[in-house]
Design brief:
Mean pLDDT: 94
Largest sheet: none
Shape: globular
Helix content: 55-70%
Order of helices and strands: HHHHHHHHHHH
Low-confidence stretches: none
Strand content: under 5%
CATH architecture: Orthogonal Bundle
């Protein structure tokens, strides 16, 4: 296993970036929230959530919170997501899953996986994670966090994603690549519809 980095450069805030590399739950929550908002908004949210929860980001504590309390933390200005209520609920579900299946430790999802298939299955089973999100996070683990479960390279996303961000400046390029890929798919769908 390669050395763990001191930061993931997914936001413009150096402290948020350090948290993402240091605390596995922060990285998972950021990945969970990375939909219908910018990548940097999704990945700064765990840092803000930790502050709103009194300086702790713990799956057991979050899983046992009243849903209304977690929702209030998500809705506090600035809101942690475009859809703070539903994302608070998903975060609660994610933490409950980690408590039930991984002894409350987010890192057990990958530390106890002996193969890439097992790692992928663990991630895909997380509430709010589908196949694409799980593949992207396999890439984050392997490319950015030094987690080397045998075979991870074959399962990691083979498209431009947050896993390819090695500096904050790189996010603009990833965003452009995603936009171009969406435009290509749309164009192909329109061509197929005309045929």
């Amino acid at each position: 296993m390669s050395a763990k980095p001191s930061a993931l450069y997914f936001t413009a805030d150096p402290d948020a970036n350090k948290l993402l590399a240091k605390e596995p739950l922060a990285a998972l929550i950021g990945m969970l929230l990375d939909q219908q908002v910018t990548m940097e908004s999704a990945f700064i949210a765990p840092y803000r959530l930790k502050a709103r929860l009194g300086g702790s980001l713990d799956a057991v504590e979050i899983a046992t919170m009243a849903a209304a309390d977690l929702e209030a933390a998500f809705k506090e200005k600035p809101a942690l997501h475009r859809f703070p209520g539903s994302m608070a609920s998903r975060t609660l579900d994610l933490c409950a899953h980690i408590v039930e299946r991984h002894a409350g430790r987010a890192e057990n999802i990958w530390k106890k996986a002996k193969t890439a298939d097992e790692l992928f299955a663990n991630l895909k089973a997380l509430p709010g994670f589908g196949e694409a999100k799980a593949r992207i996070f396999v890439g984050v683990l392997g490319k950015r966090l030094g987690v080397s479960v045998p075979g991870w390279e074959k399962i990691a996303a083979d498209w431009a994603s947050i896993a390819d961000v090695d500096s904050f400046a790189r996010i603009a390029g990833i965003r452009q690549a995603k936009l171009e890929a969406k435009q290509l798919l749309k164009s192909q769908a329109q061509s197929a519809a005309r045929s």
